Amino acid sequence: GQKIIVQSGSFVLCEENISLNTGWQGFKSLFSGESLFWLNLEGKGNVVFNSFGLIYEVDINEEDYIVDTGHIVAFEETLNFKISKAGSSWLHSMIGGEGLVCRFSGRGKLWCQSHNSTSFGLKLGPKLRPRSN
Fold it and tell me: Is the pLDDT of residue 119 over 70?
């Protein structure tokens, strides 16, 4: 009966007794640079999801937990979240390179990835040579 929300690009597979639905995360996901749609999984059984780097689990117990939006893989539906600026002002957030973060609260598990694929691509892309035919 557990409910988990998974970043759509991280989902791999689940057992057939787990229901899988698309969930609208609202415009707050659009502004965070992440997908507008996440996957809602509900049921009892095994779920496999992947990440860019190591997946680490965080137990959240009432205190706010702040994470860069590009590091979120999945979280239990019992958690609340809101998108906010990373710095003390919008200028500090943008200059610092972070921009937006996700603040989780409540009780539940959060799964994060150790690397951010978007940041990695932006740093690696300019160093790649163009393809030659």
Answer: no
